[in-house]
From TrEMBL:
<feature type="domain" description="Tudor">
    <location>
        <begin position="442"/>
        <end position="499"/>
    </location>
</feature>
<dbReference type="GO" id="GO:0005737">
    <property type="term" value="C:cytoplasm"/>
</dbReference>
<feature type="domain" description="Tudor">
    <location>
        <begin position="61"/>
        <end position="120"/>
    </location>
</feature>
<protein>
    <submittedName>
        <fullName>Tudor domain-containing protein 1</fullName>
    </submittedName>
</protein>
<feature type="domain" description="Tudor">
    <location>
        <begin position="885"/>
        <end position="943"/>
    </location>
</feature>
<dbReference type="InterPro" id="IPR035437">
    <property type="entry name" value="SNase_OB-fold_sf"/>
</dbReference>
<feature type="domain" description="Tudor">
    <location>
        <begin position="632"/>
        <end position="690"/>
    </location>
</feature>
<dbReference type="InterPro" id="IPR050621">
    <property type="entry name" value="Tudor_domain_containing"/>
</dbReference>
<feature type="domain" description="Tudor">
    <location>
        <begin position="1097"/>
        <end position="1155"/>
    </location>
</feature>
<dbReference type="InterPro" id="IPR002999">
    <property type="entry name" value="Tudor"/>
</dbReference>
<feature type="domain" description="Tudor">
    <location>
        <begin position="264"/>
        <end position="320"/>
    </location>
</feature>
<dbReference type="Pfam" id="PF00567">
    <property type="entry name" value="TUDOR"/>
</dbReference>
């Protein structure tokens, strides 16, 4: 609202609240009303779609700060909102972005916001009411808020910004037609007091550091300004180079930047002022009638300037102390002093102090200035320098790092000049006697020879002269800085001047993200370890103004730079100390030997805080977008990477990369995905201080027959208590404790399978030799939403568009069955344990001995994949992603000829101008022209092939092969239909033998048996009974609804009431049947084996039987929400919802679904 600062504006007040002693309101300017109206109209149109969209389950899926579409009870519509905080497991506090209201909602009433709505700024402007404070307390009373709401809410007021507080405008408001300001009415009602104005604090003037001279030593100085011999100013010769660099930097800054005016002309304030066409550092001495007397702190003279001529000085120009030191002599011969001291370096001895003046004695050649000795014209000043040789930008050279100050300043010697270096050392130490140097000849930049501690002579140049025992020098062939005495310095002969300096000043390319917050000592130590004294390759990138070469260093036989090695070692999250026994929360599960767990002893709020900070920094930050243009991480780097499913950034470790696609491991959640380079940024120091919130784990031992699917359902997104045995290969071996409640079911499952040897699991389409479990359905993968982190879930980024299943590629009748390939190269695989149950959809049928099924629960992932393929391949040019060669069994993307749509495939046969393509997600094969076959992008490999090859269990043809009538009958019974499938076993070719049961039917209705009973085929082994576990099949049963006739009068019993607008009743006409069913229900579930009836994979919408906590009786129910250790159920015969422990849920028999649900909502 800065634009409203000096004029009144009409605002519509939408929300009022108190914030400590501040009374805040949110308002809409006239320009925002149209935008808000358009948003409301949009949400009204898509409300039906939003109601049907999949919901969030836990509030940890919606991190603080995330923007969502929410169903607001206050506004009675869908609105844009931002998450403020979490409450419990499923509630969130949000702020409506376009109104300001804060509201507690269930996470089930939140949806992912459309991308185009994310870009629209919040329309409600936060304001603070001016001129009033709470009456006698530090907080506003509720009566004051109600008063404001009744008089301001949805009123159009005139608002005038008078100031700001933490960037929030402080506003006066007035209602049109009223004779007194609104705040006056608030004060007259006794609900507020008038705010007393506070005096404005004047900020202290920023001052320079003071330069001093040690009275115990002689100093080499130069007189910069003389007022009298009682007051003159000198500069230390030792700082002459630094002052010149500062002056150069100031002039460059002035030339490139727009200088800001000085805010306030305060006495002693630091500033920049122009003198003799140069900007110099200055300090204000006095201010009178708009003019300022200023003192140039580096030179000692004063001038009078208009205030408008002074400029603000950047803080980094304040580092060097003021160079002009005020001094005084005892003689009055001012003219003599000017003559002698003009332009010469002098020896200065401090005799004492008089206030801020130094009482000094100045000498040249050992005599006082007041009795000077004229310089002999025969005496010349000895001044020579070494020759420096330049490197070619872009060149690659071999170097040895000879000296290191830090990674922004180190020195390298070229290996190609090794002969020169040896020649220099020989000439320096071959017995030649060098001429001594006088103190007056020691001038900064002078070329010299220096004998160092090891009694060896080196070439050097003078940097600073403090006194005869303290001369700072730089060794030009090595690159180190030392302090030496005059006795160890000699003149250099002309022969040694012929050799160029052998040490090249360098700085490491792209060091910002290492130095940012990491202790310098740690960085320096690691850099020395990797480089000092070693032969390396160097790529010259640039040349800086301080004469440094910007280089990238590599080891001789490696393409990984030294910087990348340092980064991977330094930028590592700290590990959490592990106790003997730990409570862990499982966030990712691949197998009993590989799963990921977070430490429950770490505060989850700390993780949320870190995630909020990460996304505040990286989301839409132009600075990081530009930095990312040069940043290319390597394997082992800790980075911040964006997860495409929710567009949020997380800490991640680079696992591998190909071109610009990087596989990363999210270190706090355990899942992996492929991320493009532009979504990866270097991690900064504030995110390294947070520990790694989890670890990879493995059960120390487990029975080989353990059903992985069942074990996953018990462990994933659950808490366990583990005894930490040992760490091996960055993975902790653990055992489960016996006395922790959540461990009981897991331990019982392991004990049940101690003597069970499972059949081999090889995956789809053929035997999978030496395959990893990377593609296991329990491993988090790209575009999957059910195997992702529990505390901060990553959501689907694509809309779930309804796609007709008969759009899939289908093999034409004339196509001959192709031979199944033995291996799916480069595709991951789906693994299904023996005797496991899955909901399936039959996508393609060749015969009862060869048909293909898709797992129903993975269908959203396939829809997303197909949407990705459509976006990537529909508009490609002929040469885009073109395959140069066709390789048998290699993955590809091909057009199905009947519908012209692109699908994932595998090359099964190569013809002259075409290939036979097996469509891995549907099971059919088609001959496709070579021009319609493209390379499959890496990111499309992550979802395993969805078509699982199956055959009917224990069914064979009556003759040698299936007849056309048998095949047509089987197609009619199965194709494009959904079933419950029992995956009984898998043969050596990877084909699953299955029993199929139609949805909602009992176990005796196995389709295999029905098919034989119709006269098709026969049982291969009559001793094998076709029976499914009754409880396993129950996951697809549904309740019948009660048929209530409109207009009829029925006696009822009210069973539950939420409010007068929503109650539940039972019809008394069903009392007898209902009581009988309830008695049978109690009798059965009090006797049934818990392990047999336990719900295997609970999910919303599934029907079940649940125990009520008050009477411990069993009741029919429907699952509404699945949480970590509890399940929210709706009791279908009574109408109430309750949260129930997972152990109190059982599978329902079909016998108990025959009676319609009894609770009628009224």
């Amino acid at each position: 609202m800065a634009q409203f600062r000096h004029t009144a504006r009409e605002l519509l007040i939408t929300y009022v609240k108190s914030d400590g002693n501040l009374l805040k309101f949110w308002a809409l300017p006239a320009t925002a009303l149209e935008v808000v109206k358009n948003l409301e109209n949009h949400y009204a149109k898509v409300a039906g779609e939003l109601d049907k969209m999949s919901v969030y389950i836990r509030n940890t899926q919606t991190p603080v700060g995330m923007k969502l579409s929410v169903k607001s009870k206050i506004k009675r519509q869908w609105c844009r909102a931002r998450v403020l905080s979490h409450s419990g497991h499923s509630d969130i506090l949000v702020q409506l972005m376009d109104y300001g209201n804060e509201e507690n909602i269930s996470v089930t009433d939140a949806r992912r916001m459309e991308d185009r709505l994310l870009s629209i700024e919040p329309q409600a402007i936060e304001c603070i009411l001016a001129d009033v404070v709470p009456p006698g307390t530090s907080e506003w009373p509720p009566e004051a808020i109600k008063f404001c709401e009744s008089h301001l809410s949805y009123q159009t007021l005139s608002c005038y910004v008078v100031s700001s507080y933490l960037s929030i405008p402080v506003v006066r408001v007035a209602k049109g037609g009223e004779s007194e300001p609104f705040v006056q009415r608030l004060i007259n009602s006794g609900l507020a007091l008038i705010k007393q104005e506070q005096p404005v604090a004047v900020p202290p003037a920023v001052s320079y550091k003071v330069n001093t001279m040690d009275p115990k030593t002689a100093h080499l100085v130069k007189v910069s300004h003389v007022e009298s011999i009682r007051k003159f100013y000198v500069q230390l010769s030792a700082a002459e180079v630094e002052l010149q660099r500062l002056m150069d930097a100031i002039q460059k800054y002035v030339a490139q930047e727009s200088l800001a005016l000085l805010n306030v002309p305060l006495v002693s304030a630091a500033c920049l002022a122009e003198s003799d066409h140069l900007y110099r550092r200055a300090r204000i001495l006095a201010v009178l009638q708009g003019k300022c007397q200023i003192f140039y702190v580096d030179y000692g003279y004063t001038e009078t300037k208009e205030f408008q001529e002074l400029r603000a000085i950047p803080q980094y120009f304040m580092t060097l102390p003021a160079q002009a030191i005020c001094c005084s002599l005892s003689s009055d011969d001012r003219e003599e002093m000017r003559l002698v001291t003009k332009g010469y370096h002098l020896q200065c001895f401090v005799l004492g102090y008089n206030g801020d003046k130094c009482i000094v004695s100045l000498r040249r050649h050992g005599q006082d200035i007041v009795a000077p000795r004229r310089i002999s014209p025969q005496m010349t000043v000895y001044s020579v320098t070494y020759r420096k040789q330049k490197l070619n930008l872009g060149s690659s050279i071999e170097v040895t790092v000879s000296s290191i100050t830090d990674i922004t300043e180190f020195y390298c010697q070229l290996l190609c000049f090794k002969d020169q270096q040896e020649a220099i050392a020989f000439k320096l130490n071959s017995g030649y006697i060098f001429e001594a140097l006088h103190i007056n000849e020691c001038i900064p930049g002078q070329a010299i020879c220096v004998k160092f501690h090891n009694k060896i002579w080196y070439r050097a140049e003078i940097l600073k002269v403090n006194h005869e025992q303290d001369i700072e020098v730089f060794f030009v062939d090595i690159g180190n800085y030392e302090k030496v005495s005059l006795a160890n310095i000699r003149k250099v002969n002309s022969e040694l001047l012929n050799f160029p300096c052998q040490a090249y000043k360098c700085c490491l390319y792209e060091t910002g993200n290492i130095l940012n917050g990491v202790p310098k000592e740690e960085v320096l130590s690691l850099f020395q370890e990797l480089t000092l004294g070693k032969n390396l390759k160097a790529q010259v990138q640039a040349f800086t103004e301080d004469n440094s070469y910007v280089i990238t260093l590599y080891e001789m036989d490696s393409n990984i730079s030294v910087f990348q090695k340092m980064e991977s070692k330094i930028l590592t999250a700290s590990t959490v100390p592990v106790s003997d026994v730990e409570n862990l929360f499982i966030t990712s599960f691949t197998s009993p030997s590989l799963f990921f767990a977070q430490f429950e002893k770490l505060d989850s709020n700390l993780l949320s805080e870190m995630q909020e900070q990460i996304n505040e920094l990286y989301q839409g930050n132009a600075t990081f977008s530009k930095r990312n243009l040069k940043y290319v991480p390597t394997v082992g780097n800790l980075v911040c990477a964006k997860y495409e499913e929710d567009n949020q950034f997380y800490r991640a470790l680079v696992i591998s990369f190909k071109d610009s696609q990087f596989e990363v491991f999210f270190i706090d959640y355990g899942n992996r995905c492929i991320v493009p380079l532009y979504d990866i940024h270097p991690i900064t120091k504030e995110f390294i201080k947070f520990p790694a919130f989890g670890i990879e784990c493995s059960l120390e031992s487990y029975p080989p027959g353990t059903p992985v699917d069942k074990l996953c359902s018990l462990m994933l997104e659950n808490s366990i208590q583990a005894r930490m045995i040992a760490e091996k290969d960055n993975k902790w071996l653990i055992t489960l404790t016996d006395d922790f409640p959540n461990n009981v079911a897991i331990l019982e499952l392991l004990r049940q399978h101690e003597n069970v040897v499972p059949r081999p699991i090889h995956g789809i389409g053929g035997f999978q030799e030496n395959r990893t479990r990377k593609g296991s359905k329990y491993q988090p993968k790209i575009n999957e939403r059910d195997e992702i982190q529990p505390r901060l879930d990553m959501k689907q980024s694509y809309k779930k568009e309804q796609v007709s299943r008969n759009q899939m590629p289908r093999e034409s009748e004339s196509i001959v069955k192709t031979k199944e390939s033995k291996v799916f190269q480069n595709y991951d695989v789906i693994e299904i344990p023996p005797n496991a149950y899955r909901n399936v959809y039959v996508s393609h049928v060749v015969s009862p001995s060869e048909f293909y099924c898709q797992i129903e629960e993975d269908s959203p992932k396939l829809l997303v994949l197909m949407k990705d393929i459509e976006d990537m391949y529909t508009f490609l040019n002929d040469n885009d992603l073109k395959l140069s060669t066709f390789v048998l069994n290699s993955p590809c993307c091909a057009v199905f000829q009947e519908d012209g749509v692109w699908y994932r495939g595998q090359i099964r046969k190569i013809n002259s101008n075409s290939c036979d393509i097996y469509f891995v997600d549907y099971g059919n094969t088609d001959t496709v022209p070579s021009s319609k076959i493209k390379m499959l992008k890496t990111e499309l490999l992550s979802l395993p092939p969805q078509a699982i090859r199956c055959k009917s269990f224990n069914i064979v043809p009556k003759t040698g092969s299936w007849s056309d009538a048998d095949i047509e009958a089987f197609q009619a019974m199965t194709l494009d239909k959904s079933f419950v499938a029992q995956f009984v076993e898998q043969d050596d070719h990877g084909v699953y033998s299955v029993n199929l049961v139609s949805i909602g039917k009992l176990q005796e209705d196995v389709l295999n048996k029905e098919f034989v009973d119709l006269g098709h085929g026969q049982l291969a082994d009559s001793s094998k009974i076709l029976v499914l576990n009754s409880h396993a099949a129950s996951s697809n049963l549904t309740y019948k609804s009660l048929d209530v006739k409109i207009g009829s009068t029925e006696p009822v019993k009210v069973t539950y009431g939420l409010n007068p607008g929503e109650i539940f009743c039972q019809l008394k006409c069903y009392n007898k049947e209902f009581e009988t069913m309830m008695l049978n229900l109690q009798d059965y579930y009090n006797k049934v084996n818990k392990a047999e009836a336990l719900v295997d994979r609970p999910h919303p919408g599934m029907i079940c039987v649940a125990q009520f906590f008050l009477d411990c009786a069993w009741y029919r129910a429907e699952i509404k929400k699945v949480e970590k250790t509890t399940i929210v159920v709706f009791y279908v015969d009574y109408g109430n919802c309750e949260t129930v422990d997972r152990k109190k849920i059982r599978c329902i028999l079909q016998d108990f679904t025959l009676l319609p649900t009894q609770a009628v909502r009224c």
